[in-house]
Amino acid sequence: MPGDEYQPHPVFNATRAITIYAPAERIWPWLVQIGYRRAGWYGYDWIDNDGVPSSERILPQWQALKSGDALPIWRGIDFRVAQAEPNRSLVFTSFEGHDSMTLCLYPVSPGETRLAWRIRLAPYRWASPVVFTQMFADLADFISVRQSLEGIRRRAEGRSSHTRHLYLELFLWIAMFFGFLASLAVLTFGRTLIKPLLVAILAGLATVVCVLLRPPLFVDFAAFVAILLALSLSLHRKEKKTPR
Fold first, then answer.
1. Domain spanning 4-156: CATH superfamily
2. Alpha helix positions (H), 21-84
3. Which of 62, 74, 146, 205 is the most exposed place for a label (fewest CB within 10 A)?
4. At what angle do helices 217-235 and 194-213 cross, to 10 degrees?
5. Alpha carbons 62 and 34: distance in angstroms, whole number
6. Where do the domains of the chain lie?
7. Whole-number Å distance between alpha carbons of 113 and 134
8. Residue range 199-225: average pLDDT?
């Protein structure tokens, strides 16, 4: 893809794509205005845009994006536009040139387009405590980019917003993941093996299935409750009766 040449040996290399039922010409204006405190990232605004809602309309002031322009991706962090080919591809890179982000439009039919989003990052400072923040961001990247892709699709297709439970869903996923971590801690430091192992498997599978399939919210809640109950049962010990 365009932009791969900026980081030929990435540590983090992720490509996501989504099918949008709109021509590339209708999608492009949503891409060129993307960015922190611009039109937003069309995803979790309270997390990635300081609570400012992503735009629901095309903003003329952000449509003239060109190579060399600075593009803020987060508070105090700017990328620069390395390539901008209208209706085809948009490439951002860090100012050091080590990291790249590419959005490409691939026509499938006159009214159908595939939008691909690629991120390539390197090098990592493994000896620095900052690397843990980087790895957490990489872990969360799948969820955040997927939501951004869905936000772009909804806008380009002209559909209304239905994100009322978006953050509750995200909270339940995070809670399930911490339930999984807790079950691993019990498995590591506990005195028994079978129960904590089963709970860890349950919690891990439930988290992955809910994040990947995005079932109705009540399913997420039921999975979270099931993990809590299983975790409490794994911690429960039968008390021995002492004879009088």
1. START domain (3.30.530.20)
2. 24-32, 45-48
3. 205
4. 170
5. 8
6. 4-156, 166-235
7. 32
8. 95
Contact 208, 156 (CB under 8 A): no
163/13 Cα distance (integer angstroms): 29
Contacts of 167 (CB under 8 A, 6+ apart): 44, 46
Residue 154 and residue 57 in contact, taking contact as beta carbons nearer than 8 Å? no
Q: Which residue has the tokens 């009540």?
A: 218
Instruction: Please say whether the beta carbons of 103 and 92 come within 8 A.
Output: no
- Segment 52-79, tens digit of pLDDT: 999 999 999 999 999 999 999 999 999 9
Average pLDDT on 229-234 reads: 91
Give residue 149's identity as a one-letter amino acid code. L
Q: How far apart are CA 159 and CA 153, in angstroms?
A: 9
| Strand partners of residue 74 | 77
For residue 188, the SS3 value is: helix
Contact of 51 with 36, CB cutoff 8 Å? no
Q: Is 92 exposed, middle or buried (0-12, 13-18, 19+ CB in 10 A)?
A: buried
pTM, two decimals, is 0.89
- Evaluate whether 47 touches 144 at the Cβ level (below 8 Å): yes
* β-sheet with 70-74: strand ranges across: 12-20, 112-121, 100-109, 89-94, 77-85, 70-74
Q: Residue 44's CB: how many other CB atoms inside 10 A?
A: 20
How far apart are the C-alpha atoms of 57 and 33, rounded to whole Å?
10
**Any idea how long the chain is?**
244
